[in-house]
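Intended use. Records like the one below are meant for learning the mapping from a protein sequence to its folded structure. Do not use them to infer anything beyond what is encoded.
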Amino acid sequence: MKPDSMKLNNIQALRAIAALMVVFAHIDLPRYQSVGIHPDMFAFGAFGVDVFFVISGFIMMYIGAGKSGLRDAGGFLERRFLRVWPLYAFFTAVAVWLAYESDPNWWLSYYYPRAKMDPAWIAGSLTFTRWSRSPVDAIGWTLIYEFWFYVSVSIMIALRAGPKYFFLGYTVLILAVRALGLAKSPMLNQFTHPFMLEFVYGVVVYELFAGGRLGYSNGKALALAAAAAVTTVLAWRTLDSPALYSRVLFSGSAGFFIVALALTLEHRFTAGKALVLLGDASYSIYLTHWTVLTTLPSLLDLHHLSNMGPITYIAVNVAAALLLSFAVFFLIEKPLRLAAQCIHRRFRRAKGAPAPATP
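Structure written out for the chain above:
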């Protein structure tokens, strides 16, 4: 873990903003079409996922700097698994329970059909190998890409390769496999999916950052802000394009410039404590909000509480999602993270190796 003085507050703030974008994207709005509210009013919030992927590419390089060889590769992958998997497993269990409850409670069946109790579906979800359908906890689809990116980073560490050349080769591999139609197996299809290129944008940001090219200057900040604005507009126009490479190109580029701008501003204009705290809790927000927003609207209807205007309805959904997210962060995620750190340290001691703290 980097020392506290090296904590990148602007990156944490970006994680908060990306998480909030995703929350808004998933608010159920079709019920207000009759009063002129477009059901896809917050659809662009899906762009938060692309920003998350770019941030993740940067952060994995940042925390993986200096690691080399098989031992470090194994430790890196183990720490990432222990950081991500426990809370994801918890919400997968919640989704299975909701699927079990969906038989007498018909209103749960749309998002949580009883088919989600299938052991094979659960196993595929928990091992990040649910290739053909979304995981049991549907919001976890992004974690599949995250996990396989972690695998790629661990391979880089094991091979003692530098990020620049390793991920240049990885990019060529993705483009070649896709161009030649070679992604026949589900695993290869996942490992070479165009979305993986968005992590590579983050790797490039890290290379610029590590090389000292993102230091602050007025001109640099203005240029990055202009590039971020232009590419964000292009991302907004292409987010739903059937051509996936359009999303990767424009949303990935926008994420690249936004993350680079945040780092350039890090020691000149630092994000406030509220956004940083939201960023710290962003993983809990990401996983929790889906459970809230797929159950709360029906609960409001069942208890005759849905007679509210769209602004109140949106506020209620967002407030409930954030309040429960912070409860999960403090009462579940942090204890799970602490337990994972203890497991990791004991495992490393048993193997006679030093155990660095889990970031």
